Amino acid sequence: MEKSNLNSRREFLQKMLAATALAGFYPYLNKTEDTSLIYGYVWQTA
Amino acid sequence: MSGKLPKRPLGKTGHMVGIYSLGGQATLETPGKEELSVQIINKAIDLGINYIDTAAWYGRPTATITQEEAHGHSERNIGQVMKNRRKEVFLATKTHDRTYDGSMRLMEKSLKNLQTDHIDLWQIHNVKGPEIDALDKFFAADGVVKAMEKMRDEKVIRFIGFTGHENPAVLKALAERYPFDNVLVALNAADKHYDPFIENFLPTAVSKNLGIVGMKIPARDRIFAHGGIITIKEAMEYVMSLPISTIIIGLDDVAQLEENIKIAKSFKPLTAEQMLAIEEKTKPYYKEIMFFKNLSEWPEEW
Prior knowledge:
The complex is a heterodimer of chains A (46) and B (302). With 46 residues, chain A is mainly alpha-helical. Chain A contains 2 helices and no strands. Chain A is rod-shaped. Chain B has 302 residues and is an alpha/beta fold. Chain B has 14 helices and 10 strands. In chain B, the strands form 2 sheets. Chain B has an 8-stranded parallel barrel with strand order 3-4-5-6-7-8-9-10, surrounded by 7 helices. In chain B, strand 5, helix 4 (100-114) and strand 6 (119-124) form a beta-alpha-beta unit. In chain B, helix 1 crosses helix 3 (73-85), helix 3 crosses helix 4 (100-114) and helix 4 (100-114) packs across helix 6 (144-153). Chain B starts with 6 loop residues before the first strand and ends in a 13-residue tail after the last helix. The relative contact order of chain B is 0.15. The interface between A and B is medium-sized, with 23 and 27 residues.
């Protein structure tokens, strides 16, 4: 995968993981790997 | 098997669903495997599964059983357990008919097959891409949605939804048009390689607070092709890391059930890097995996 595409995909997946946490889908976890990312992200569907 | 199956909210239904659930295809829809099916269903509930998916359509024809006769076979196997354990699970089935009358007839059969007087979730089965131009029929006075509303008003069903594995655009159109409660959608580690549900539909489903149930996780085992590039653990963890409520997988036997339960109980979300690596592994054979998007031949037994 080209580097720019890879970065774009990585960012998208990070948003997905953040959305999963924000949706309360990991209530059984004490911590995640990057809390600043998870709590700082607001899901947008635009 | 120690530990509990982690649970997540099923959209706005109020049900907390285990992250791994029982799919009603594979053994459960195969004539001649009734005893094993009942064993699998009972064991699944014993191990903490609290969501079972089936459909009026599910049932495999054989040399002596036509497709029409096979319909309902999965429901009938599940009904053998539901007659004693109905309160222990959230029960989902589907109508493949798009009309009011046809769907009402299917509901009557589903209730009889499942040996219950109520269904938790009734879904419009297998909404396909070309139907995007015919959605008005779904919502017409003689359409399937009116049947669902009628059954919900009469408390025969509690929630309504839709399912699809072929085309994200039509699922997005449905989600935006009507306040459904749930969607069952094909999501797996090869998804990104062709018209992805994850990018083109999942954000809408999340924003609508739908219950989101992932299917086609191992894609009838095709995701393990070519010497086992992807393991069932990777396949399940990839999808469970997404903002979905639960995943369903059809089973061959009790051993598969126990293995999947073990994976679900120990689940920790993957990192983006791990997900990228799994996606790359599926790239060389994504067309084989995603037969359900009509990219390759369907499995013979389907």
